[in-house]
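Possible race condition, two jobs.
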Amino acid sequence: MHRKSRSVDEDDDQHLLHEDTPLLANNTPPWYLLNKKRMLITITIVYLCCVFASGPLITFPTLVPLLMDEHVFEGESQQRLLTLSYSISMGTSYGLFFFTGMVFDWIGAKWSGVIGAVLTCIGFVGFALGVWFQGANYVLFLALPWSFEFGVLNSFSMYGFLWFLPQYQSLLSGLSNSSFQVAGGLSLLFVYLAQHNVTLVQSLFACALLCILAAFLIGIFVPSKHETMQAACRATGLKIDIDPPPMKQQLRNLKYQMSKHRLVNFLFIGWASSVNILLVLIIGNLYPFLILLTNDAQMTDALVNAYAPIFALGGAVLSVMMGFACDKFGIRAFLAVTNLLTVTLFVSMFLNMEATLYLFLTMIAAVYSAVALMTPRFSILYSTPPLFGSYYGIQVEIKLKSS
């Protein structure tokens, strides 16, 4: 029997931990993480599962021409309704990020990935049916945010390896972000397939089938919550109670942990929010902004067409490289580089030459990837293993609300 945990008012970092909690009986990692080769294969499999079970809908604007060809919301309000469905989806998904983090803390990485993949599959099927049957077009208002939200939950499965590879926690965070960006790049594949007589509906059904495969593989290759907390015990030397507390107690624990590092949280959220506001203003108004800079519609079209692969695929590569660099050189050096990239973003924006405008698009992807990487890394540093998801979720929630 566990004794009651100490009061959250006690001033130490172990207020969530039971000092007399025995370690689990099995003190070795799962079979698929016993050596470096198995770890590499396992993480590659889970990464690909996260890509296919997050899907292409994150880059929904790239799919708009295909949806228009399918006569979705056909009529005078077509563009407005398509834009509205995307805006609602983004708002809903980001508005539930804190809830997603709490779910991760309750059920662990394995079940977050499995449930996320299965429910994303349902979202893809709903989206495909909404496109297929014109009378069901309004299903997109449900299927799109549904797919977004559970795609995010699925991507959390990469965090199941954080405490098995504590020296590569930034790299793992980068891989989680990268999987979502590569998933967005699948929209480019859908566009290519549409040019070769594969309809959007067929591509969506194929993605739904891949989600089921992803759920099966995640169920095999992602550690359970028990195994993850056991790895945290080994990595930190702490004895952690793996049973999640009631929601009210979880919120009290989170409040305590954030108030304990109040100044650091304030500075980090202020910095991340400022950079995020800049990115939202630029990305949300990219086309008119580029027209203003270039005064050339043809060049603007070329830049906008280049934006999707740069942001999705280039950003994905940058996320992984940045994660590796952050682990190697440390968080302070990485923050300095991120600020330098932000300055480069400003400079390239106003030089107003074609080459520097492509650099400008690359810097958007780089700064976005850097801030997206720093948020989970900051949460790992200032939270405790049982609180990581909630801490990460509230950081993202505050950052996005301020934008």
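Job #2 (started ~2 s after job #1):
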Amino acid sequence: GTAPDAPASAGTGPSHSVVGDLVCLVSACFYACYTIVLRKSLPDDDEANVALFFGYVGVLCSVVFAPVVAVLAGVGSMHLKSIPPKAYLIILVEGGWLREGVCWS
């Protein structure tokens, strides 16, 4: 059975549990790879500009994933209208801070 507090949209049965477990496992593997690359890429001295490095990581992720989001939205798999306008504002504000930090460095 399901827990009494489970949302109505939550899946039931072992197949949903296995899919969720696999998604978590893949996510953990990606995070492990990310931290290994991070440790190998940044030098151990104080000259490394960590903020600039994370800025480049953010730009790279944006460049890589923007086309994926555009394609998914184009084929109807992702509905961008369900995202509240406040979220777009937060993205723009945070992106502005990132651009300023990268340009300043």
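The two ends are 55 Å apart (CA to CA).
Logs attached separately.
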